[in-house]
């Protein structure tokens, strides 16, 4: 096996946005808005042990590498899609009115005109009821057909990750939520 002997630059994580840190215990699991908006590529370490690294301890290096790669595998595409959406909205707020809003090739779906209609608090969680405009493709269907479509759909199943994007006065805010219940009750005016 031939190894390279020329010096290589060690790229260090930290300081490029609010959730960029060399210490993985200081990295928030869910991406922050500053991180999502950043055009700086995320620090992704190599699994090749012959590559230079900023940590000398092999166990710490392994944990650091696996955490960063797993987090990227989970949130990388989402961060890219949300970053594109937020930057597009900032440049052109009327883009939100587009009924064919798309987040690219990933399995994520935009729900326009979403709003929080009810919030309750408990010692261990906060629950919010989120409502949104009916999907454009379903608007001409009858209420029972829409209900059946939603019940058969895998969308918004329990445990799904949601990102509520609030945009007011040229400023966006993000709120990550997890679906605890999908309600398709006609009696509540949902369909």
Describe the structure.
The mean pLDDT is 84. A hairpin with a 4-residue loop joins strand 1 and strand 2. The chain is elongated, with a radius of gyration of 21 Å. The chain has 3 helices and 4 strands. The chain is of the alpha+beta class and 191 residues long. The protein has a two-stranded antiparallel ribbon with strand order 1-2. Strands 3-4 form a two-stranded antiparallel sheet.
Number of DSSP E strands: 4
Oligomer: single chain
Main sheet summary: 2 strands, antiparallel
- Strand order across the largest sheet: 1-2
Keywords:
191 residues; alpha+beta; two-stranded antiparallel ribbon; 3 helices
Summary, kept brief:
By secondary structure, the protein is an alpha+beta fold. Helix content is 26%, strand content 15%.
What's the topology here?
Blueprint: H1 33-37, H2 58-91, E1 115-121, E2 126-131, H3 143-152, E3 161-168, E4 171-178
